[in-house]
Amino acid sequence: MRRHLHTLVGLVSVLMTLWFATDAALACACCTNRGGRYVAVETLSPHRLDMMEQMTFADEAFVAQGAADHPIDLKDFGPTLQLAVRRTKTEIVFAFRDEADRTSDVAFAVPDTISIFEVDPRGPEPDAGLGPAFYKEWQLSGAATATGVLRPLIEGGDPKVTLIVHGRGRGCTEASEFTEWTLMIDGPAGRLTLYGALTSAAR
Predict the structure, then answer these.
(1) What is the pLDDT of residue 34?
(2) pTM of the model as a whole
């Protein structure tokens, strides 16, 4: 009886050791290192695209201030706008509306590649034993069309539009880590930056 009890205790001890080791290994798979960084251009995978589809754009957007950001007459457009976003498999459409009901839709074509930027900002924030929270940016750059107020900024050339989603997190990236978005329009008439907040179903 003692022998069986001793054997059972030993088996439980081994199983607990294996469980803690497995749990630690899984946690470490998501750990980051001080001074770490990852910068790359990758094919836009279904997994990353799915994560982006989990991100919800808040219903308020902002026009960035500064002379360089106002290449067309935006005196009465912004700085705060209402935003609705709709998506298809090939594009993301940003529908902006100001307090005077002036509108502009920017249809951004989803590209085949994505730029990834993840870096340890080396700030004073404690890492809780899992490594520092990296600053993260995902950038999508492609073509776009526009209607309404912003149409003169884009028409008549080959505009470049970059959508950036950014936030903070460790090695195992989740949609909920991204808390902000920026839309940079570089058209024949000049440049414009719009920005706002993100939420996600996972948060």
Answers:
(1) 82
(2) 0.80
